[in-house]
TrEMBL record, chain A:
The keyword Methyltransferase does not apply. Signal peptide: none annotated. Keywords: Cell membrane, Membrane, Symport, Transmembrane, Transmembrane helix, Transport. It is found in: Cell membrane. The chain crosses the membrane at residues 73-92, 120-147, 153-172, 179-198, 236-257, 269-289, 319-347, 368-387, 393-417, 424-444, 456-474. NCBIfam families: sss. It holds the Pfam family SSF. This is Cation acetate symporter. Belongs to the sodium:solute symporter (SSF) (TC 2.A.21) family. InterPro entries: Na/Glc_symporter_sf, Na/solute_symporter, Sodium:Solute_Symporter. Its main location: membrane. The lineage of its organism: Bacteria, Bacillati, Actinomycetota, Actinomycetes, Streptosporangiales.
TrEMBL record, chain B:
Residues 1-29 are annotated as: Disordered. It comes from the Bacteria. This is DUF485 domain-containing protein. The keyword Transmembrane applies. The lineage of its organism: Bacteria, Bacillati, Actinomycetota, Actinomycetes, Streptosporangiales. The keyword Transmembrane helix applies. The chain crosses the membrane at residues 37-58, 70-90. Keywords: Membrane, Transmembrane, Transmembrane helix.
């Protein structure tokens, strides 16, 4: 066991628990629990968005992928800023104005119906559980590799912490933790960048140049050849850039802000952080290749997930390695807290309060059910993670984007922007997108191996248009059905795009 | 079914329900214009972004290396930084649109109505 790393991890966890205890004083109502009372400002929410989005998979996965596969690893880094620009322009503000606790609330602002609410909740849960399992299994394996802690112990401790965060702190606590995580991650990445730059003669791109000198220009140039892999990469990037708008744990952050301007400001703050973060990851990847070496990176982990911590060890000794490992663990905890809030909202608010009880639950009852749902999700996630330890689940991260891009994204976009959508179309879009995206993954190469029936690992290229097509076709086919028409589109548009001059002044970053 | 949120939020009523007879067409035109700009910009963003993987994966246009930096990475940096510039421009546009007096001034709804 690495004593220094464990000590720093415990120190950072203590800070998150202190933040949670502080947040508990502001976590008293259902509004507080799910959306921090809608009081979060632009800067704070921007940092929290960065804390929510910048996962260990990004930091470790992209650095390792660039170290081992060169330019191919870079495709995972380029999509997030563009995805956030789309989110900012298309969804953020209308969602903030229409939604309350969950994504389903925004759709319910136009269409009533328990079937639609259930379909939205199920899509939310599928996306969130996929994401959560990756985080849990990844955290357990990293704790084993980085800290020397046994997998089951790590998973149970992480699950317990996640439960405490959401049970006591709710969305207020989650926001504090995500802001804290974003700050420590930014500081750590900055220190790493300074040290790597110092090692390469003060040139931030020196690691790339050195890699080209040592291994040839091919290591920093795009690779060509396998057409199926190339199409898969196009599908992956399309899923990422469109799927972000449908990720429940990310999008609910826009329900926490105090007004539309704060929603815009927060997306902009997050995008600045992403731009810097994703631009420097390839530098770390090549620095790891040069300084740590391919053999050691692969020896630690076949996917190269320890390239970043090993780079930190190489240039800053055990102390920087321990800090990096600790920051990675806190990163996972912050992402898990956001996922747990989004999932518990889908269960408690959408399924229990609205679908099962038809809204007949007191505010106190809603808060209680939300907390119970949070605990239940933690227990289920721990059990699934313990079961999934031996499975190869690395591919699931990109599947979550594809599922979101094929289900929640089409329905949210069409609800806000297309007057012709009706309730049947919304349900058809969700069900069609969910069945096609999950189904094609199940018959694809990541699950069936060489016996696959569908050639792409990430089916977004087909399933995103299919999700939109299902929503359009069902809406057109049932155009005359008055019971499916929902609230007048004109009214919804006025709520989604209110006259901005009523936005309170001084609420910017 | 009654959405509990709607049931608890009298502010969620549309403006015309509170102010019958106020002019509404100008506000609708503003919204339609906003939607056109946003959707056109979003389409352009997706097209510009997807050009990057298409060019790098299927052509040799970005295969070059100069001074130890790959052309693909240089283009990738533009793909990463470009959206931040786009976001800045969008925020300015949205702020100007909020500040400008519009024909639908009489038909406002509360921002965040229904929250």
């Amino acid at each position: 066991m690495n004593g220094t790393a464990v000590t720093i991890v415990l120190l950072l966890i203590a800070v998150t628990l202190a933040l949670t205890a502080r947040a508990a004083r502001r976590n008293r109502s259902t509004d507080d629990h799910y959306v921090a009372g809608g009081r979060i400002g632009g800067l704070q929410n921007g940092l929290a968005l960065a804390g929510d989005q910048l996962s260990a998979a990004s930091f470790l996965g992209i650095t390792g992928a660039v170290a081992l596969t060169g330019f191919n690893g870079f495709y995972l880094a380029v999509g997030v800023p563009a995805a956030y620009l789309l989110m900012l322009m298309v969804i953020a503000e209308p969602l903030r104005n229409l939604g309350r606790y969950t994504l389903a609330d925004a759709v319910a602002a136009r269409f009533e119906g328990r079937g639609l609410r259930t379909a939205m909740a199920v899509a939310t849960l599928v996306i969130s559980i996929i994401y959560m399992v990756i985080q849990f299994v990844g955290a357990g394996l990293l704790a084993q590799l980085l800290l020397g802690v046994d997998f089951p112990v790590a998973v149970v401790v992480i699950g317990a912490l996640m439960t405490v965060y959401i049970l006591i702190g709710g969305m207020v606590g989650t926001t504090y933790i995500q802001v804290f995580k974003a700050v420590v991650l930014i500081v750590t990445v900055s220190v790493l960048l300074v040290l790597v730059t110092a090692k390469t003669g003060g040139n931030p791109l020196g690691a790339m140049r050195d890699a080209a000198d040592r291994f040839g220009d091919g290591v920093i140039a795009p690779a060509h050849g396998d057409t199926t892999k190339a199409v898969d990469t196009v599908s992956l990037t399309l899923g990422m850039v469109l799927g972000m708008m449908g990720l429940p744990h990310v999008m609910v952050r826009f329900l926490t802000v105090r007004d539309g301007r704060a929603a815009r400001d927060s997306a902009q703050v997050a995008m600045w952080i992403f731009a810097v973060f994703f631009a420097v990851l390839p530098v770390f990847g090549y620095a790891a290749l040069n300084l740590v070496g391919r053999a050691k990176i692969v020896g630690d982990n076949k996917a190269g997930n320890l390239a970043a911590p090993r780079l930190a060890e190489e240039i800053g000794g055990n102390l920087l390695f321990s800090v990096t490992a600790a920051v990675v663990m806190v990163t996972i905890l912050a992402v898990l807290a956001g996922l747990a809030i989004a999932s518990s909202g889908a269960i408690a608010h959408d399924l229990y309060t609205t679908v099962l009880k038809r809204g007949e639950v007191s505010p106190r009852g809603q808060l209680l059910v939300g907390r119970i749902a949070g605990v239940a999700i933690s227990v289920v996630a721990i059990l699934v993670a313990l079961w999934a330890k031996e499975l190869n689940i690395a591919f699931l991260g990109n599947v979550a984007f594809a599922v979101a891009a094929s289900t929640t994204t089409p329905v949210l976009v069409l609800t806000i922007y297309w007057s012709g959508l009706n309730r049947y179309g919304a349900v058809a879009g969700l069900v069609g997108g969910l069945v096609s995206s999950v189904g094609l993954v199940l018959v694809g190469p990541d699950v069936l191996g060489d016996d696959h029936l569908f050639p792409l690992s990430i089916p977004a290229l087909l399933t995103v248009p299919f999700g939109f097509l299902c929503a359009w076709a069902a809406s057109v086919a049932t155009r005359g059905r008055a019971e499916a028409a929902g609230a007048p589109y004109r009214e919804l548009a006025r709520r989604a795009f209110p006259d901005g001059r009523q936005t309170p002044a001084g609420s910017g970053v | 079914m009654t959405d509990p949120h709607e049931a608890r939020s009298p502010r969620a009523r549309p403006a015309e329900a509170r102010h019958p007879g106020r002019p509404l067409d100008g506000r609708d035109a503003e919204i339609a214009r906003h939607k056109r700009v946003v959707l056109a910009s979003a389409g352009a963003t997706v097209a510009a972004f997807m050009a990057f993987p298409l060019l790098t994966l299927f052509t040799g246009a970005l295969d070059g290396v100069a001074g130890g930096v790959g052309a693909g990475y240089a283009a990738g940096l533009v793909v990463i930084i470009g959206p931040v510039a786009g976001a800045t421009a969008y925020r300015r546009w949205a702020s100007r649109a909020e500040a400008a007096p519009g024909p639908g001034a009489g038909a406002r709804v509360d921002p965040g109505a229904g929250r």
